[in-house]
Amino acid sequence: ELYASIGDGKMFHNGRHFAAWCGLTQRQNSSGGKTMLSGITKKGNPHLRSSLIHGARAALQYVDGKDDKLSRWAYELKCRKHSNVACVALANKLARIAWSVIANEEDYRLEYAA
User: Measured on CA atoms in the order 99, 103, 107, 112, is the torsion positive or negative?
Assistant: First the structure.
C-alpha cells in the first residue's frame, strides 16, 4: 500500500513532507509570531496513515528490552508520553524511514533509525 501510494517518493522533498502528507505531523496554527501546535492533521491517505499507526502500535508492544537505537528511543518515549502519542510519533518516524528507503533506492540501514 505504501509503495502504491507514493511510487518512487520523488514527489516529496524529504521525509517530513511525506509524513505531513500522511497526516502524521502536528497541525500548526500560527499568528503574530506565536506558534500553536495541536493534534495530528489527518490529511492524506487515511488507509496508509491507519496502517502506519497500527504497525507502530504493534511494534511498541515489543520494544522492551531491545538494544537497537529505534527500540530504545521508542521505549523511552513510551515511558514518558501517553501510549497514543508515542504510537503516532513512532508511526511518523517509520514513515520517514520508509520514504528514505524508497526515495534513495537503498536497503534499510540501522543508521536511518538514529
Answer: negative
What single-letter amino acid sits at 41? T
Q: Are 90 and 59 in contact (CB under 8 A)?
A: yes
- Through-space distance between the first and last CA atoms of the chain, rounded to whole angstroms: 25
pLDDT tens, position by position, 38-93: 677 777 778 888 999 999 999 999 999 888 889 999 999 999 999 999 999 999 99
Which H/E stretch holds residue 34?
Answer: strand 34-40
95/80 Cα distance (integer angstroms): 22
Instruction: In whole angstroms, give the CA distance from residue 42 to residue 21.
Output: 9
Burial of 67: CB neighbours in 10 Å, binned 0-12, 13-18, 19+ = exposed
- What pTM was computed for the model? 0.81
- Residue given cell 502504491 in the structure block: 4
